[in-house]
Amino acid sequence: MTFRRAWLVSLTTLTLVALWSCSSDDSTNQLTNSGSQNGANDGDRSSSNEGPTSGDSSTTNEGGNTNPNDGGADSSDSGKGNDSGPQAGCTGAKVCDDFESYAKGGLPTSPWTTQVASASMAIDDSKAYDGTKSVHITTNGGGAMAVMVQEAPLLPMSGNNVYGRFMMFYNVMPTTHYHLVILNGPGDNGQMTMGGLENSKALFNFGPGDNTAVSNAKYPQGKWACIQWQFDGPNKTAVMSIDGVQLENKVTNWQAFDIAKLSVGLLNCCDDGPKVDMWLDAIAIDDAAVACP
């Protein structure tokens, strides 16, 4: 199996269209695992929740290991939330954002900064898991970036052990190498990403070098899915779950760094691929596991 190499110097340089190149690299250290665990279940989930709980980000708008899941999720193929369902399920987390507090059509603001290139990102009310709004991301096809960024004062966290969760709805999903969560160390040194490869098989991609841990499980399409993760710096591990099921592509040899930047959204590295159409909602980041809503 040949993986497409996907590393860059820093996210800030991506505003100059320095998107990840995609060239074949037979020397890639492949940690590919077999087996598929992708338990998406149908069901309606919708509600409103309080706005962001984290403080302001200090940047400008430029451009023991444990299972991260301590609660399952019912995914939903319903398009728009209402006020009758459960809450977003992250009250008390350091970041708990259902995007209800932002203006329709605009970008998410504090506690986020945003970086967008060859893509569109906007607060949208056509589809939501929780409440009436979510973040809608579309691309023009091929290489693109649309991410929401957290740095200080949220990061680095005490213990350097970061958990997160979001609800994701793919209408049209990427088919090449892409990233949904991107971690960087101080000064953008060091990198660990979580994303997809080969028609959205779940993937960790980390350095130094170009190491990959690929699952046979794929992200769901056409319904809401709960995506959870844990990046444990002291134990050099990373794990992810889809709809409450921990995947088999656990990373155990990550040369961890102090996590100083965390970006959530879409970074599509390659020049080919479809025009992606996706939504994110109910994002949570904390120093403890956050259950699916």
UniProtKB/TrEMBL annotation:
Molecular function, one GO term: hydrolase activity
Region forming the signal peptide: 1-23
Stretch list, region Disordered: 26-88
Biased composition (Low complexity): 70-85
Top-level taxon of origin: Bacteria
Polar residues bias: start-end ranges: 26-41, 48-69
Protein name per UniProt: Secreted hydrolase
